[in-house]
């Protein structure tokens, strides 16, 4: 047999094997989702981590309330309604006839169990951080009514309950778990280092969803995730990099609720001079930077919460690009004796978000143009956090600190205090007026709350100039042609399988 | 021989223990895991609680003795991230890496012996030049890039192979091909070099004078003598692969120990770092013994004695 013939035979053999490839996820009602990272575990009380939440939130475990990502309103889910009894007490009326996937009944005791488990000192529950050091005391009024007492007023308590996953009363309370049981439309059937499989739960209390099975796999390479959806090996990936976006029919951008900024350390000269802080904002060609580094879909930010969050202020005008004005402000400050040529350190974090370093380099070049003296330091995550919260390192010097902040809770309370109040963990400013407005906003409700937060964000942007707001970031999903599904601002934290429909 | 093996084993246990001590303290020098484990907005009290829960609030030497005490009960600790035994996590991943490594090295050695020997038969000939070009490409191509291109060509372009993952025999083809490239490229050069030396030696001249055929001279007489350096280099390469083919595992979504180790280091999941290093250290120790034994088989002059 000549070698040409063997080559041809081998090629034919390969082709035959190729044709007999199992057509995955093509001819059934299951979906395959490829995630960017392996879920650490499947512990419901850690579900604010994207890699866990995208699998279990509202699929396996549900919540009393759901936060609508588009406008921050809170809608009923496992709770049908709620009222505030007094400043410290909230009463929730529960959905009846709901069962857990292990057959246990959903009632007031199950809610109490879930809250107590979340607060248990034997577990490290990420979701607890949202409550700070508040203590919760839940009691049953009757089987389908539960009252929750807090030790200080929390006007947005219904929003907070949108982050508390309700777990079966049979869940162990002394250790974290990997086999969650909830009331959701899907139950866990398999969890290995390679895959998670969910199956439709037949006794679900709500509407029966069309998808019968969801298989999750994970791949770190964005190009590979994009390829998997293209070849039909997967139906959906919630995140591909901007350079892999190539097909308008399958690739959709969504605001991912992350906002980026450069925090100005206003305690350190010359950054304690407001003219210098304004110059920092005016020296950047924002349109060019956004498009070149992050793609054309990012939104220019004026505040650290995305549109739709309670407290977002649409009236704030972003800083424009005016290098001449920036230079003039610097000269004016210098004439007053401000040492504007003091070296300023840009602190970045390696692998922070796509092209984070490129953005720092580009901004550094533009700042140098107008006369700033900058040096760039990119730290690894563990080093970077030393500069993130108080007490700040003694030896830090004048610095700008790159930060990405994610608020998908529907309310500015999780942003304003920590960023801008003089006691806020990340705050580098101390302005009594701003403190007062934030404190009032935290205690207010409804229209009043919205207005006060908007006021705080405007003051911080226009008068104090506490930071250099960058962009509201976007993620890109690639959705296979079988599915009728679009991403939303909550895609960063959850993918509700029950909302995925198949194209007929 | 037996006493030699026992001696080697005892030495290795000491080295592995030393390694564990080193890894234990080095890992903890990287800093506080609570900053990577808890949400950024966690309160200082929460961090305190976390440290107590995992014993990080104890002085280092107490943590270390606790760890050693647990080791004696074969308790290797719990993975903070995965909520399960760290050894279970490591032992689940290791076979996946081992299978890849064994097949890739085996394939690389066999192919390199054939190609390298044929190159050495006529140094400077056409086959030698083509093989030299390809082996250099294989030795120097970035496997990361090759892997992505292979996926684009064979999975997306032709639809012949699955992009990644495990499951069917077809899933093995690309990871193994990519993983074989570098060892193959290096070993071809080694085989060729030691083969040329062997072919110029007196005993080969004698064999030729006796009228032994070309093929028999290369693959019988010269090959055995030129295998020693090949075994040495192949052993080194195998040790590298047993440690985890991080790039290939990452790109092809292969759940091996290399990626697990890197992730555990980045996340400061100390128990998993220690378990993965323990598993691969033992594997490499066994590999070294195997290489010593192969030497003895290849070269009768080598006898292991305990002196």
What does this protein structure show overall?
The complex is a heterodimer of chains A (504) and B (307). Helices cover 28% and strands 23% of the residues of chain A. Chain A is globular. Chain A starts with a helix and ends with a strand. In chain A, strands 11, 12, 13, 14, 15, 16 and 17 form a seven-stranded mixed sheet that branches. In chain A, strands 1-10-9-8 form a four-stranded mixed sheet. In chain A, strands 4-5-7-6 form a four-stranded antiparallel sheet, covered by helices on one side. Chain A is α+β, with helices and mostly antiparallel strands and 504 residues long. In chain B, α12 packs antiparallel against α13 (270-298). Chain B has helices spanning 2-29, 34-37, 44-54, 60-72, 86-121, 126-140, 143-157, 170-199, 202-209, 214-242, 246-251, 257-267, 270-298. Chain B starts with a helix and ends in a 9-residue tail after the last helix. Chain B has 13 helices and no strands. Classes of the chains: A alpha+beta (504), B mainly alpha (307). Chains A and B meet through α1, α5 and α10 of A and α2, α3, α5 and α7 of B.
